[in-house]
Design brief:
Blueprint: H1 2-29, E1 36-40, E2 47-51, E3 57-60, H2 64-91, H3 95-98, H4 103-110, H5 114-124, H6 127-146, H7 152-157, H8 166-181, H9 186-197, H10 200-206, E4 260-264, E5 275-279, E6 281-283, E7 291-298, E8 306-313, E9 320-324, E10 328-334, E11 340-344, E12 347-348, E13 351-357, E14 360-363, E15 365-373, E16 376-385, E17 391-394, E18 400-405, H11 426-435, E19 441-447, E20 452-457, E21 461-464, E22 472-473, E23 480-484, E24 492-494, E25 500-503, H12 511-517, H13 526-536, H14 543-550, H15 559-568, H16 571-576, H17 579-588, H18 599-619, H19 621-626, H20 639-648, H21 661-676, H22 688-691, E26 693-694, H23 699-703, H24 708-711, E27 716-717, E28 732-734, E29 737-740, E30 749-751, H25 769-774, E31 778-779, E32 787-793
Helix pairs in contact: 2-6, 2-8, 5-8, 17-18, 18-21
């Protein structure tokens, strides 16, 4: 028996070693090719791909199509699994790859049938754009098949990848629509609920169009509605009301909002060049969403001239998304305009299969969608469609609602952004942006002549006959979206007198321009205001100066909340709870920054959030009772009414459990103390860094935790927070930082998290991470050549 046990043990050990060896060989087989020579079918001329010490490829080709084919090859070898996830996310096809856990996710996305819409986008494209997509797709598939084994993720999932198609590129763009301007318009739904259930004066107070923090490029901050009086609502006279009940059920936490771009004209540059800055904040993952690249090819319009465009690409799409072509530099922030609407439906009382339109009753259209599920039977479900979009839910009154989403219209998406390669000045660049079919963005551009400009990139719908802020019926003539704004009518700000531009997801303009864009939930203007003030505080800037603004983590927004706490925590009140003394000491010495070692910053921040929850969950309890999904965080300008309440302290809006507003505020202090207090050390270890520990993870490490230490970036405490230029959350932050002087790109700066490659054994898997964490600038342009891969056209056969 002992000999048998020994043999079994040895046999089991051999199997483990063989499995490990097989896994290692599989992993090694998916290494990207960095050097050497190979043929690439479809090329018209040789192409060279060089890489620098960060793994950034510089592609030199004799045509734009050949450059796209080579870009597809390197995208596939470094990032194919990421590309696959994005196309599947948009199409609602993740279950086929990962199994039944993704079915509900796929059902939500399949409502919009975006694979069919993508096919329509391809049909609408120009012949040259379709040829470019075909060349790119063929390059992707060549790069995938050139690997000795599939990318390692497919080994872990025990499946294999399917080929890339031109429509998959469009689906990757749709994945960004979901990320930036998704169809789930909870804000509009919540506003509709408030409008139905609360006094109009209270709704106007709680949902201002702006605040004193606004810093638009045109116009001023907007006036705030007054606090409703006791004749409108008086909580003190309604004991026992559900409005007064404040339970401890945690409310959803509003997701982080980030992204900054700003520019200064040549007059405010230290060396006479305009400067463009961009940091697009997104969810952080391994690999990073962006892939750096440089494309070099002859200008098709001018013999002997060369196109050189450098910046970030989105794997799956054959264009430079943001960067510089030597003449213009450009970048984006999410616009938060109004790009989706909830349409209420009148259904026929005599026939519930029909709904009212401006042309009379119509029958609902039904589509059977089939979701393939890995290792299980396919799931079928029915999509109910209207002329405006799919039916998604019923409101609190039982009224059916459809969603009209800009991405669901094939006219809203195209490949025009690729024409930025050929822009020569801010005017031609804005023309490209205005006709581009992408999620609508704040587009800031600077050119080599020293000019700067802002406009919207992406399609802008024309709206009439309804209130875009609320769910509405569109069944009257002229109600709804009636077409698209002409490119020559787009909002623009060109060469402002102060020589500075800035956007930060907040309201940018006023008047007619604001009405054109709409309001889809602008971020509070505190971050934009801090950037504006940083830009106004200095006359001449270098690239390093502007990087410092990107990294500005000063807690300007919370300054008045700290002052409130210091006033509140008087000696008499500290005696009531001795722990308040330690709390006050840390607040007093907070340092004024979202620094990793600051206890005081975390205390002030947590106090403000606790007071926000106490005040608004009580005021809006009625809405949450009517709809459990109601979330006051969708009211993005809540700082204005909150500060008005805690500073003016109207008794009629005070939760009846408290005798005074100061009593409520002290309860908030004590709640923060009780939540963070550690026996033996008090609050000493509860630093901002302890909370703001950043985890950047590879998608499969969540499903296979043992791989986390190998696949993920090491956890790191980082400074920064919302409502300041250096936006930083635990899994959200700057997906890149760049500072560019168009015409002098060699002076430019670039940073991004993780690295170029998604292959874990690559030296470029995590080698950009450290500099990004520390805010240390790397060059914008590719550096000295470390690797060279040469492609030759495949020989023609008769």
């Amino acid at each position: 028996m002992k000999r048998l046990a020994l043999r079994l043990l040895l046999g089991f050990g051999v199997l483990i070693l063989l499995a490990a060896l097989g896994g290692w060989l599989f992993l090694k087989g998916s290494a990207p090719q960095l050097d050497g020579h190979r043929t690439l079918a479809g090329l018209k001329a040789p192409v060279t791909v060089t890489r620098d010490d960060l793994g950034v490829p510089a592609i030199r080709a004799e045509s734009r199509r050949d450059a796209a084919r080579a870009l597809g090859f390197v995208h596939a070898q470094d990032r194919f699994f990421q590309m696959d996830l994005m196309r599947r996310l948009a199409a609602g096809e993740l279950s086929e790859l990962v199994g039944p856990g993704a079915v509900k996710f796929d059902e939500r996305h399949r409502l919009y049938r975006l694979r069919q819409v993508a096919q329509q986008v391809i049909a609408r494209a120009t012949p040259e754009q379709r040829a470019l997509l075909v060349a790119y797709a063929e390059g992707v598939n060549a790069g995938l098949h050139a690997l000795h084994t599939w990318p390692f993720e497919y080994g872990l999932l025990m499946t294999h990848p399917r080929p890339w198609t031109p429509e998959d590129t469009v689906l990757v763009i749709y994945a960004m629509y979901f990320n930036l301007q998704g169809p789930w318009d909870r804000r509009e739904s919540d506003l509709g609920l408030m409008n139905d259930m609360l006094p109009p004066a209270l709704v106007a107070f709680l949902n201002p169009a702006g605040t004193r923090w606004d810093a638009p490029l045109t116009g001023d901050s907007l006036p705030q509605a007054p606090i409703p009086g006791s004749d409108v609502i008086d909580l003190r006279k309604r004991p026992g009301s559900h409005l007064l009940t404040n339970d401890d059920t945690p409310l959803p936490v509003h997701r982080d909002i980030g992204s900054n771009n700003f520019a200064v004209s040549a007059a405010h540059s230290a060396d006479g060049h305009a400067l463009l800055v961009n940091d697009m904040h997104l969810d952080l993952a391994v690999p990073n969403i962006w892939y750096r690249a440089q494309l070099n090819y002859p200008d098709p319009q001018y013999t002997g001239q060369q196109i050189t465009v450098t910046g970030v690409t989105l794997p799956g799409v054959p264009v430079i998304v943001a960067g510089s072509n030597g003449h213009v530099a450009w970048g984006f922030t999410n616009s938060y305009g109004d790009w989706v609407d909830l349409v209420k439906l009148h259904t026929d009382p005599a026939d519930p299969t029909r709904y009212q339109t401006a042309d009379g009753w119509r029958s609902f259209t039904h589509h059977e969608e089939i979701i393939r599920v890995k290792h299980q039977r396919s799931v079928k479900f029915d999509v109910t469609d209207t002329v405006w979009g799919p039916v998604v839910d019923k409101d609190h009154d039982g009224v059916m609602r459809a969603v009209h989403w800009i991405a669901d219209d094939p006219a809203a998406t195209n490949l025009e952004l690729g024409a930025m390669d050929y822009a020569t000045d801010i005017r031609s660049a804005m023309a490209v942006a205005n006709r581009a079919g992408i999620p609508a963005q704040n587009f800031v551009v600077a050119d080599s002549a020293g000019h700067i400009a802002w406009t919207i990139a992406g399609r802008i719908p024309l709206r009439s006959g309804y209130d875009p802020q609320l769910p509405s019926y569109w069944d009257k003539p002229g109600a709804g979206w009636t077409g698209w704004l002409a490119a020559d009518q787009y909002p623009r700000v060109v060469d402002p007198a102060n020589g500075r531009l800035w956007t930060a997801n907040a309201r940018v303009v006023d008047g007619t321009m604001l009405k054109q864009i709409g309001d889809g939930g602008y971020d509070l203007g505190a971050r934009a205001q801090q950037i504006r003030d940083d830009l106004m505080a200095q006359d001449k800037f270098t690239p390093d100066d502007l990087l410092n603004i990107e990294l500005d983590d000063r807690a300007v927004f919370l300054g008045r909340w700290r002052s409130l706490l210091l006033r509140l925590l008087s000696p008499e009140r500290i005696l009531q709870n001795p722990r308040r003394a330690e709390f006050r000491n840390y607040v007093e010495a907070w340092g004024g920054r979202a620094a990793v070692n600051s206890v005081g910053y975390r205390l002030v921040r947590d106090f403000r959030l606790r007071i926000e929850d106490m005040v608004f969950s009580a005021l809006l309890k009625q809405c949450r009772k009517a709809d459990p999904q109601f979330d006051y965080h969708h009211l993005t300008q809540l700082e204005a009414p909150l500060w008005a309440l805690v500073s003016q302290q109207p008794r009629n809006l005070l939760d009846s459990r408290y005798q005074s507003w100061d009593e409520l505020l002290l309860a908030g202090v004590d709640h923060v103390i009780d939540t963070l207090w550690v026996p033996g050390s008090g609050l000493a270890t509860r630093t901002w860094g302890e909370h703001n520990t950043v985890h950047i993870r590879q998608p499969l490490s969540r499903a296979i935790p043992l791989l986390g230490s190998w696949l993920d970036m090491a956890p790191v405490q980082l400074p920064g927070d919302s409502n300041m230029p250096r936006v930083q959350g635990r899994d959200f932050g700057a997906s890149e930082r760049m500072v560019i002087e168009p015409g002098n790109e060699a002076s430019g700066i670039f940073e991004m998290p993780t690295g170029q490659s998604g292959y874990p054994l690559s030296p470029y898997y995590r080698n950009s991470e450290s500099a990004w964490e520390q805010g240390q600038p790397a060059p914008f342009l590719p550096g000295a050549v470390v690797h060279t891969l040469e492609f030759a056209p495949a020989k023609q056969t008769d």
